[in-house]
Amino acid sequence: MPEPVEPVQQASGEGNRLPPRGVPVFTGINRIGLWSxxxxxxxxFLKVQTQTIWAPAVTTLLFLVIxxxxxxxxxxxxxxxxxxxxxxxxxxxxxxxxNSFANSSFTLLGGKIQGTIIDLxxxxxxxxxxxxxxxxxxxxxxxxxxxxxxxxxxFYPGVDLAAPHLWAIVWFGLMGAVMLALMGLLTSIxxxxxxxxxxxxxxxxxxxxxxxGTFYVIDNLAPAFQAISRANPFFYxxxxxxxxxxxxxxIGNTDLAVSHAALGLLxxxxxxxxxxxxxxxxxxxxxx
Length: 288
Prior knowledge:
Layout: E1 8-11, E2 14-17, H1 31-46, H2 49-71, E3 77-78, E4 81-82, H3 83-114, H4 118-121, H5 127-154, H6 166-190, H7 194-210, H8 223-230, H9 233-246, H10 255-282
Antiparallel strand pairs: 1-2, 3-4
Helix pairs in contact: 1-5, 2-3, 2-5, 3-5, 3-6, 3-7, 3-9, 5-6, 6-9, 6-10, 9-10
């Protein structure tokens, strides 16, 4: 009986053998697969945009209303600007970060609970492409929420959203969204039920967001609490983002000081991305 012959693929008039089983056919980046995953994730949150885009914008605007009414009376100023103008940038980027986390933290967890996780793990996507697609969609949602919040605040009395340093707005907004998207993806890998996700949101993300100088300058704190604030990466995102609008912040009033914070956030995100990639590649709590 003749020996089975491996299938032959004809390409450019030459016979090229298919790779052995288990060896990926795709080389380089699977652009179609990556784009398909990204679009799937974007369409998922856009289908319920009232909940994922507009509701967070309204909630963040309510924060502005409450705090300006409670603390902004009698023309109170912070860093030489009205309180509403001071607090608006922090609220915008806080909303961006929280929604970036919410988006990426649901993807794999939802698949685990609904039994559709195989639809994400089975396609010919590398771990890096899977991570990039999920993080990219989360950053897109963060940008949409930030745009909606900024649009609403632009019409709020007493808020001036001039942008003397556009690069800082873009960079720190991007770094904050990526950081929380990576944290959300790591949470999604670890969590086994929605309670686990909610615990991280309520006991880690929310406190770090609210206690990072969103509503105050850390110079007003005791030295010990100033040190704690400076150890919080959220503080640098919010202060750097505020610098883009006001030209001054808690981390300094010069491009050099803010640039150091920008590079520090980049380094932090690279380390976090490497950690998430290694956990995703290990298959922990996904393929066990």
